[in-house]
């Protein structure tokens, strides 16, 4: 007998259907060693689930202008904005961890947005990618983003895309996978994910852009610098113990 996955999970855990669907949508639910991707997909009612816990949001810094937090994977930027009462300055994808900035006053927000617009914000990420990256690589390919409802998908487009520059540097190689540093000059939607996929080194866990399945997208926003501020979030344990 089959039933929608979120309903089976709700019954098994004794929680509401809404909470069960939220857990699946966050990417926290596994069955048979594989992530359950579609909450409304039908599944055997005897399926046994494993639910992964999320890490807490950690505050890095706060003053009269800005709040910097270390965002864990599986929590959206918008959830953190709602909890903090401050406004997001930028966003990280739900499964991307690392430094996330929120602003506390409009004057500072306008100054910071101008820094982003002029490309004067330093942003450094780390990622585990498929294949061996042997040397530093500059990816200068324009990106076009299509948005449908709450979903966005980006692609390389020479005719309609906006300038996007990513510099990739290998840090560690193991088991035909490479940990890389990614520094982005621009900040297009899904920029690092699209660029790495295009050069045949998709990020581990990034099935949306042709990466192999894993428990999360292995992308972490390590460092950001703007307007005299500098914030850093240490890499999560899963990046250190990946291989």
- For the record, give the distance between the C-alpha atoms at the N and C termini, rounded to a whole number: 38 Å
Please compute the radius of gyration using only Cα atoms.
19 Å
Number of structural domains: 2
* Annotated CATH homologous superfamily of the largest domain: Pseudouridine synthase
Sequence of secondary-structure elements? EHHEEEEEEHEEHEEEEEEHEEH
Low-confidence stretches: none
Your description of this structure?
The protein has 243 residues and is an alpha+beta fold. The protein folds into 2 domains: 2-51, Structural Genomics Hypothetical 15.5 Kd Protein In mrcA-pckA Intergenic Region, Chain A; 58-240, Pseudouridine synthase. 21% of the residues lie in helices and 37% in strands. The protein has helices spanning 5-13, 17-25, 77-84, 106-117, 191-198, 237-240; strands at residues 2-4, 29-31, 34-35, 42-44, 49-51, 58-62, 66-71, 87-88, 97-103, 122-130, 137-140, 143-148, 151-156, 165-174, 177-184, 219-226, 229-232. Strands 6, 7, 8, 9, 10, 11, 14, 15, 16 and 17 form a 10-stranded mixed beta sheet that branches. Helix 1 packs across helix 2 (17-25). It is globular.
Architecture blueprint of SSEs:
Blueprint: E1 2-4, H1 5-13, H2 17-25, E2 29-31, E3 34-35, E4 42-44, E5 49-51, E6 58-62, E7 66-71, H3 77-84, E8 87-88, E9 97-103, H4 106-117, E10 122-130, E11 137-140, E12 143-148, E13 151-156, E14 165-174, E15 177-184, H5 191-198, E16 219-226, E17 229-232, H6 237-240
Parallel strand pairs: 9-16
Antiparallel strand pairs: 1-4, 2-3, 2-5, 6-7, 7-9, 8-9, 10-15, 10-16, 11-14, 12-13, 14-15, 16-17
């Amino acid at each position: 007998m089959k039933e929608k996955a979120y309903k089976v999970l709700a019954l098994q855990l004794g929680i509401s259907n809404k909470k069960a669907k939220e857990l699946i949508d966050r990417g926290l639910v596994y069955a048979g060693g594989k992530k359950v991707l579609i909450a409304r997909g039908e599944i055997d009612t005897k399926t046994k689930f494993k639910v992964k816990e999320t890490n807490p949001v950690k505050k890095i810094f706060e003053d009269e202008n800005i709040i910097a937090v270390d965002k864990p994977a599986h929590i959206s930027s918008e959830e953190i904005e709602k909890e903090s009462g401050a406004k997001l300055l930028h966003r990280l994808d739900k499964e991307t961890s690392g430094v996330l900035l929120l602003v506390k006053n409009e004057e500072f927000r306008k100054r910071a947005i101008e820094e982003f617009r002029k490309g004067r914000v330093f942003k450094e990420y780390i990622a585990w990618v498929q294949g061996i990256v042997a040397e530093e690589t500059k990816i200068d390919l324009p990106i076009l983003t299509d948005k449908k409802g709450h979903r966005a998908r980006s692609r390389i487009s020479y005719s309609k895309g906006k300038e996007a520059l990513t510099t990739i540097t290998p840090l560690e190689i193991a088991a035909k996978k490479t940990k890389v540093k990614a520094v982005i000059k621009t900040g297009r939607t899904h920029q690092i994910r699209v660029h790495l996929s295009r050069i045949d080194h998709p990020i581990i866990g990034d099935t949306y852009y042709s990466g192999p399945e894993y428990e999360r997208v292995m992308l972490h926003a390590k460092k950001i610098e703007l307007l005299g501020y500098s914030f850093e979030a240490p890499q999560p344990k899963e990046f250190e113990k990946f291989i």
